[in-house]
Amino acid sequence: MSTEGSSLQDWGIAADEKFSLRLFVAGASSISIRAISNLQSILDEHLKDRYELEIIDIHQQPLLVKEENIFAVPLLIKKLPSPIKRLVGDMSDKAKVLKGLGLE
């Protein structure tokens, strides 16, 4: 399915359903900054005000890293809507990010 002109309902997502996301990064590295920028651009285009994005620096939150079993960064965890999904990388592959979010 093309994402052009598609609505969330086309993907089986309720109109009032919010996405809960966590992006784990390693400080202000160039890869981390690129991942944040790429992801925010995709989210703003496809989810507008329908998401909550928590950006977590693994150096600042080591307990959360252990709790979430983080094995590589940047790593995006989609908590809601179910199912939980994980994506690793700088979020530059828009199709991969949309698929991981269940928006393809």
UniProtKB/TrEMBL annotation:
SUPFAM superfamilies: Thioredoxin-like (SSF52833)
Protein name: Circadian clock protein KaiB
GO process annotations (BP): rhythmic process
Pfam families (alphabetical): KaiB
Family matches, as CDD domains: KaiB_like
Source organism (scientific name): Pedobacter frigiditerrae
Domain named KaiB: residues: 22-103
Gene3D superfamilies: Glutaredoxin (3.40.30.10)
